[in-house]
Specification:
Layout: H1 18-22, E1 26-29, H2 35-47, E2 52-55, H3 59-68, E3 73-75, E4 80-83, E5 94-99, H4 105-117, E6 121-125, H5 133-137, H6 140-144, E7 148-153, H7 159-164, E8 171-175, H8 187-194, E9 201-203, H9 209-219
Parallel strand pairs: 1-2, 5-6, 5-7, 7-8, 8-9
Antiparallel strand pairs: 2-4, 3-4
Helix pairs in contact: 2-3, 4-9
Length: 224
C-alpha cells in the first residue's frame, strides 16, 4: 500500500522587515513560482500594504498578481509588476541608464524601473553602443550630470569602460546575454567589464537589471 503524500503548504517566508532594516522594499523573484504561490504572496503583501517589486514576471503571472493587487502596474519589457502603481517622489541624485543596443532594453528597463520605485530620478538612453561612438558622445552632458550611470551591454561589453572614461560618477556595468555565439550567453561581456581599465566600474551579474538598479539607487541616495 502506498501512503498518500501532500506537498507542504509553507513555501515562502517574506522579509517584511526589509524596509525598516535596509530602507528598501521587498522584491519577489517570480521565475519558477506558480501562479497560486504568487497569488498567495500578493495577498500577504496587500494585507500589509507593503510596496512590492515582482521581477522576472511571465504574462500569466502578471495577470494573477493583478487579480490580487488591482491597479498593479505591469511592465512587459522589464518583466516586472510593481505595486502600488505609482513610484514614490524621487529623492537623492539622478540615475542615467544607458544601453549599448535596443536588444539590451529588457535588462535596462528592469534597472530603470527598480531604481525609480526605490525613489530615484531616472533617465534612459538607448542604443548608443561603441559601434557609433558619436551616439554616446551626444549624451555627454546628461551623463556628466548623473550621480551614477548604469551601462547595459552585451556582445563585447565595451561601453561601460568608454562611459567611465568620460565621466566622474561611478558606473554600474550590466552584461547581457545578447550577442553571437562567442559572447557565450553574456560571459564575454562579463569578463570584459570585470577587466575594465577605467576606474570606478562596478559589475553585476549577467542580465541582472534588478541588482544594478538597486545598487544605483543606494549610490544615489540622499546624503545623510
Amino acid at each position: 500500500m502506498t501512503e498518500s503524500w501532500t506537498a507542504p503548504r509553507v513555501f515562502t517566508e517574506l522579509d517584511h522587515d526589509r524596509t525598516a532594516r535596509r530602507g528598501y522594499p521587498e522584491a519577489i523573484f517570480c521565475q519558477g513560482k506558480t501562479v497560486e504561490q504568487l497569488e498567495s504572496i500578493a495577498a500577504e503583501m496587500r494585507a500589509r500594504a507593503a510596496v512590492t517589486l515582482f521581477t522576472r514576471v511571465e504574462p500569466d503571472q502578471a495577470v494573477a498578481i493583478a487579480r490580487v493587487l488591482p491597479g498593479a502596474r505591469h511592465d512587459p519589457v522589464a518583466r516586472m509588476v510593481v505595486w502600488p502603481p505609482d513610484p514614490p517622489a524621487p529623492t537623492g541624485g539622478r540615475i542615467v541608464v544607458v544601453t549599448a543596443g535596443t536588444t539590451d532594453l529588457p535588462v535596462a528597463q528592469e534597472a530603470w524601473t527598480t531604481a525609480s520605485y526605490l525613489g530615484r530620478s531616472c533617465e534612459l538612453v538607448s542604443d548608443v553602443g561603441v559601434a557609433g561612438l558619436h551616439r554616446v558622445l551626444g549624451h555627454l552632458e546628461l551623463l556628466r550630470a548623473a550621480r551614477v550611470v548604469v551601462v547595459v551591454a552585451g556582445m563585447d561589453g565595451a561601453l561601460p569602460s568608454v562611459v567611465a572614461g568620460l565621466i566622474s560618477a561611478p558606473v554600474v556595468a550590466v552584461p547581457t546575454s545578447v550577442g553571437y555565439g562567442a559572447a557565450f550567453g553574456g560571459l564575454a561581456p562579463l569578463l570584459s567589464m570585470l577587466n575594465s581599465c577605467a576606474p570606478g566600474v562596478s559589475v553585476v551579474n549577467i542580465d541582472n537589471g534588478y541588482g544594478a538598479g538597486h545598487l544605483a539607487a543606494q549610490i544615489a541616495a540622499p546624503f545623510p
